[in-house]
Amino acid sequence: MMKSKERLPWLLKILSLFFAILLYFNANTSNQGGEPTVGLNDLEATAINVPVNVTYNQDKYFISGYKKAVSVKLTSANKILLDKESNSETRTFSVVMDLTNYKEGTYEVPLEVVGKPASVKASVQPAKIHVTIEKRKQNTFQVEPAIDSNIFATGYELEEATTDPPIVELSAGDGTLSQVDRVIAGVSDKENISSDFSETVKLYAINKKGETLDVQIKPDEVKVNVVVTAPRKKVKVNPVQSGTIPQGIKDYTFSIKDNEVEIEGPKSIIDEISGIDLKIDTSNIRETLSGSYVVVVPKNVKVSPETVFVTVTPNKSDSDKSSKSEESEKKSQSKSTDKIN
Fold first, then answer.
1. Considering just the CA atoms, what is the radius of gyration of the chain in Å?
2. What is the four-CA torsion angle of 150, 153, 157, 163, rounded to 10 degrees?
3. Domain ranges of the chain
4. What is the sign, positive or negative, of the torsion defined by CA atoms of 90, 92, 93, 97?
5. For 227-286, how does the pLDDT look when each residue is reduced to its tens digit (9 = 90+)?
6. Which fold has domain 43-126?
7. 319 by DSSP, 3-state: which?
């Protein structure tokens, strides 16, 4: 009786170890069907936006109309492994759609999970997806810049938009490619633009209804160069006397050729400009003088032309006229006296 009691604890220990090993292998090995048995203690996780990798003859066919990414439900008793496989940066499995033996047409094709650990069970959601297979065709298209007018600051407008490269190649099914109306390089994610800029943008192809088509574009990005025009208007240039007036000069007459110029700049500034005073320094002008004068405008404003041609005519004062008249008379008298002598 004593020996039976002494053996009992050892028997319990052996049985406990046996069941522990059994549970471990049950959670970490697969069954005959290729998937591990789901136990009561299994954990679940969902891997979202898993890319669908498609196998097909890319030189001959073009595929479209299928989901590019799916969700995969994962089950395992190993939490560390489950977390690893549900993370897009650390997972080892992938979702595959094999079209190797398919011809032209539209099909519902099953998806397969490959490369997963044996202790993880996976089910794709959805398990099947539709796909259309067409003969591959190529053609070149001009890229059309599409600049949203709402991106510009008040008064500023699009002057010109170009793309680099200006032409791209499209690949698609024969039927899809025939529907392409335009290839668009759109810019709409900016605001308060008041100067020229360049931006690299993705391309998309649309049909005549403006609907986006499922095509491949090479390259799929282009550089858009935008030239912006500022608010502008024409104003008159008014010559005004500046500096000192030499003795004997009463005032000046200004004759300006083409007295109208065009100014360009921020709307808040040019709205305040109704005309431009052209200051002409007369300190050393005693005789009629013609020349080009620079039109001075506020900062951030451009003017065209930048210079204007002005003729400056001094008008003699009355006293200066009298003195000159007296001098003329004296000279005349002097000449008469010389003749008598």
1. 44
2. -70
3. 43-126, 136-229, 232-316
4. positive
5. 999 898 999 999 999 999 999 999 999 999 889 999 998 888 999 999 999 999 999 999
6. RNA Polymerase Alpha Subunit; Chain A, domain 2 (2.170.120)
7. helix
Cis peptide before 231 (omega within 30 of 0): no
90: CB partners within 8 A, 6+ apart: 84
| pLDDT tens column, 15-74 | 666 655 555 555 444 433 344 454 556 899 999 999 999 999 999 999 998 999 999 999
C-alpha to C-alpha distance for 279 and 154, rounded to whole angstroms:
32
For domain 232-316, the CATH architecture is Beta Complex (2.170)
Q: Strand 121-125 and strand 182-187: pairing?
A: unpaired
Half-sphere exposure of 47 (CA within 13 A, CB side): 30
Q: Is the pTM of this model over 0.85?
A: no
Are the CB atoms for 262 and 300 separated by under 8 Å? no
Phi first, then psi, for residue 322 (nearest 5°) are -65, -45
Q: How far apart are CA 264 and CA 303, in angstroms?
A: 6
Question: Hey, what amino acid is at 147?
Answer: I
Return mean pLDDT, the chain: 86
Specify the CATH class of 136-229 in words: mainly beta
pLDDT at 35: 47
Take residue 51 and report the two structure tokens written for it: 């890319």
Let me know: does 179 contact 141? Beta carbons within 8 Å: no
CA–chain centroid gap for 324, Å, is 74
Domains 43-126 and 232-316 share a fold: yes
